[in-house]
Amino acid sequence: MASPRLFVFGLGFTARVFADRLKAEGWRIAATCRGEDKRAALEAQGIEAFLFDRGRPLEDARAALAGTTHLLVSVPPDERGDPVLDQHAMDLADLRTLDWAGYLSTTGVYGDTKGEWVGEAAWLRPTGERQKRRVEAERGWLNLYRQYGVPMHLFRLAGIYGPGRSALDNVRDGTARRVDKPGQVFSRIHVEDIAATLRASMDKPTLGAVYNVADDLPSPSHEVVSYACGLLGVEPPPLVPFEEAGLSPMAASFYADCRRVKNDRIKRQLGVALTYPDYRAGLDAQFAAEGGR
């Protein structure tokens, strides 16, 4: 019997951590990338690689997807919509070997709740264009389940962090800032806890399900930076009022919404026990793994 095969559209930070976990379990991994250099690098690592982008669909989708038992989509929508849906929806609808499919979305679809807790059943009130595109993409993926039976699951991810992409890394490379906007909090999730949640969903599929993936402690970003500085034994950067921070439009947009994201469903339905229930646990573990420096 052939080992299960995961096909990933967009092998980014989160998807790569998850794919590596399954590869270590003996799974076959296939993924898309956008350039020949990356394709060659992935092939050298034992990952089947296929070129894909907006305007460049899979050259032979039937062959590329053949034997896929599990599908993960982490390609974000662009101004024209979801490129995977636009170019390969019917190929996926025809894929009869598929047991599970996951789409990585964002908690940004909820918009601004003024700091109130928000669960999966809440109204979606996205405030920015990127978040509105996500809502449309979610609808498209759920429609693929409702109309064609593609076994979709949606995962709304909070702010992702982990080794190589954390406050510790930002402090070390000098890009960390402490911006003060009173009352502002962000929900976060460690990349390894995302991977564990996806794995748990594969073991307990609930077609059409939607899951928030967030830790237990929404917190102001400046507190996270201060904690990282404490671990590294350096002076925290000065606390700057939001209005005086001179943030780029993209950076400022993250402060437009304030919400606390509920994670009860992944615990109750999937049995997920977070390895890193708050940013302190995540940063402590990274700091220790990197030799405490």
UniProtKB/TrEMBL annotation:
E.C. no: 1.1.1.290
SUPFAM superfamilies cross-referenced by the UniProt entry: NAD(P)-binding Rossmann-fold domains
Keyword set includes Lipoprotein: no
GO molecular function annotations of the record: 4-phosphoerythronate dehydrogenase activity
Superkingdom assignment: Bacteria
InterPro entries, per database record: NAD(P)-bd_dom_sf (IPR036291)
Keyword Protein biosynthesis appears in the UniProt entry: no
Protein name: SDR family oxidoreductase
Native organism taxonomy: Bacteria, Pseudomonadati, Pseudomonadota, Alphaproteobacteria, Rhodospirillales
